Amino acid sequence: MTQRSPLAPEAFPDLPPIAGVTMRVARARYKNWDRCDLTYAELAEGTVVAGVTTQSKCPSPEVEWCRDAIPLGSARALVVNAGNANAFTGHRGRAAVEAIAAKVANHLGCLPSDVFISSTGVIGVPLPVDKAEAGLEAAFTAPACGWEEAANTIGTTDTYAKGARASAMIGSTRVELVGIIKGSGMIAPDMATMLGYIFTDAAIEPKLLQQMLSAANKRTFSCITVDSDTSTSDTVLAFATGKAGNAPLASMDDAGADAFQAALGDLCLQLAHLVVRDGEGASKFIEINVEGADSDASAHRIALSIANSPLVKTAIAGQDANWGRVVMAVGKAGEPADRDKLSIRFGVTQVASAGLAVEGYDEAPVAAHLKGQDIEIGVDLGLGEGRATVWTCDLTHGYISINADYRS
Amino acid sequence: MTQRSPLAPEAFPDLPPIAGVTMRVARARYKNWDRCDLTYAELAEGTVVAGVTTQSKCPSPEVEWCRDAIPLGSARALVVNAGNANAFTGHRGRAAVEAIAAKVANHLGCLPSDVFISSTGVIGVPLPVDKAEAGLEAAFTAPACGWEEAANTIGTTDTYAKGARASAMIGSTRVELVGIIKGSGMIAPDMATMLGYIFTDAAIEPKLLQQMLSAANKRTFSCITVDSDTSTSDTVLAFATGKAGNAPLASMDDAGADAFQAALGDLCLQLAHLVVRDGEGASKFIEINVEGADSDASAHRIALSIANSPLVKTAIAGQDANWGRVVMAVGKAGEPADRDKLSIRFGVTQVASAGLAVEGYDEAPVAAHLKGQDIEIGVDLGLGEGRATVWTCDLTHGYISINADYRS
């Protein structure tokens, strides 16, 4: 891993075990490196699954495999390969996915469709089946590992391991949720846009879990962007082992369903922020709040137009209160906007309202806000009730350095 | 001006005078600099005008002024202020535009609506009327200047003066076209996306000139992008003085209309390429050709998705044949695409076809192509007859350096 992001949390958090989940890692050596790069999670019988995947029109065969298996609702294992995305590899890529599923199914005595698979890394090189199979053999007999080791093993260009936890009371039963995630570049909204895995011991029907995950995704993973580029491999999966012994949740009307949805949403938000905080080259974490838009969807598109604007992102990197670039980004979004009703603030300081700079605008508090690591930009369209929040990072020399010579 | 772009032409071209057009420049000192920053073009009586402006929902008052005046079809003067965009400046910005138009109209004895005005520079600071008026006084009595001086005076972050010429035969009369243009950042398609001015001595009806300019714009200025950011001030105006004495063109069926349209299109393409070649921080000029798409519009959107992808642009900067990022950019465009029919080439070398890398792919010729300054990426969707070409530049440390401390 390269130098730890300046926005990283101080340490990997203390995460509880999840009953019914055993994590193991191994060296498949997908690249010429000496690190674990294959993660294998064994899930107890009866585990249910939900998931969201990339909107890319050129998805990897792993994504297609997961899309087919998610509606069946049951899971026994997860395999994550790091160092090779296996995307755009034609029939050879599909064969590699099928071989992995068959090998794990044979080992566990389950259906191939109970095996969930992700791969991340360079595009266009078929995943070597021999390395995957040898890696799996090693993983099957490896000792169980902790969350941090698993989180490190799914990473590629990540500069730190990312994990988070949440919990909820379902009736009198406390259920735990743990998530690990990887991602720092090729991050854009419009779906999961990274690899994330959530494990819980809660008992819950897969359809309800899917409904809750989709709802959480919409307000979390779909609201972050690093560089507007959408991966071919993005996947978030949630596995529920049912080992907590709560009365199984089957509908949002069940006692504890609201609490579980809240905990799941909280966990997803933590994980999404961890990805932004590891945005390639990031030196600032930026929250963009848009209100007063024509609709929530319109607010979301305007917020993303700001968050993806290279000129806004470089201004923040330069600690430059260049709010004109925010006006530009609102204007280019193609959404309803009236220049003369528009208000903009940085942090708590109003800089422009009703179409021009505020009377007696003092840049000092804005400059002080921009010197910090956590930046907030607020935009009020002054048109309606639509609102949205998105999160992004700044655009720095670090992003260029990382991406101008990633593969070479 | 900062260091001249490595993609700049060797020298400013030799451009002929256009009968009926007199260029003058002056120092309005809109910024604390010692350079001419006000350009004043006096146009002969009878000059007609056409124009295209930004699609931004937050346009500058200059853009609104031009939008109102263009349909009236007649022009006597052009004023371009550099160093201050006067955008998002409310009633004070509008008052500045009206004051400039009034002063020039009074000087020439024409209507205010015959005066066309553009401003470019920082957003959010009202254009100082006193400086504009003093600058105009100086310009009225300044000696006529050449095209290169005018091209330098409309520039801001441009690293070189940009001009081009074309000519056409209308019947037995040769007509000349000259254009000057500025722009290097905040360049995105979806309209003019920069300030460009075209002057011709041809006699032509303003409605036909508008039709021809709009058609040329669609294939030239609307097909370039530097950073996906759309300016609040973008404007391209075409002025025709009629002094060549040709039989006036009134419809595309008139003799010479096709030739004039071709010359205008050629001139616009030259000017558009000059802007891309001065893209902030650019080290490579990139042409992206998409074919086999569902429609021309779909091909255009896919081409722009590739051209605006930070990961594609940084890969080219790093001379890295990372064609997986092209797959990613096709996939994220949201347009019809079938991964398994997709083909990609760099220059003349096919790298992937039918959904995977070509058999025996040799990276050497691609690496050699990427070492050059002029890069071509070809994508064949394999679906239909839709095609499009767009032009962009790479994304380098230079872009970050320029934009992380532009205003400060």
UniProtKB/TrEMBL annotation, chains A, B:
Top-level taxonomic group: Bacteria
Residues annotated as binding substrate are: T156, K182, T193, E280, N403, S408
Give compartment(s): Cytoplasm
Keyword Acyltransferase part of the UniProt annotation: yes
**What InterPro entries does its record include?**
Arg_biosynth_ArgJ (IPR002813), ArgJ-like_dom_sf (IPR016117), ArgJ_beta_C (IPR042195)
| CDD domains for this protein | OAT (cd02152)
Q: Which Gene3D superfamilies match?
A: ArgJ beta chain, C-terminal domain, L-amino peptidase D-ALA esterase/amidase
Task: Give the enzyme's EC designation.
Answer: 2.3.1.35, 2.3.1.1
What is catalyzed by this enzyme? Answer: N(2)-acetyl-L-ornithine + L-glutamate = N-acetyl-L-glutamate + L-ornithine; L-glutamate + acetyl-CoA = N-acetyl-L-glutamate + CoA + H(+)
Keywords on record: Acyltransferase, Amino-acid biosynthesis, Arginine biosynthesis, Autocatalytic cleavage, Cytoplasm, Multifunctional enzyme, Transferase
Pathway-wise, it operates in: Amino-acid biosynthesis; L-arginine biosynthesis; N(2)-acetyl-L-ornithine from L-glutamate: step 1/4; Amino-acid biosynthesis; L-arginine biosynthesis; L-ornithine and N-acetyl-L-glutamate from L-glutamate and N(2)-acetyl-L-ornithine (cyclic): step 1/1
Q: What's the protein name?
A: Arginine biosynthesis bifunctional protein ArgJ
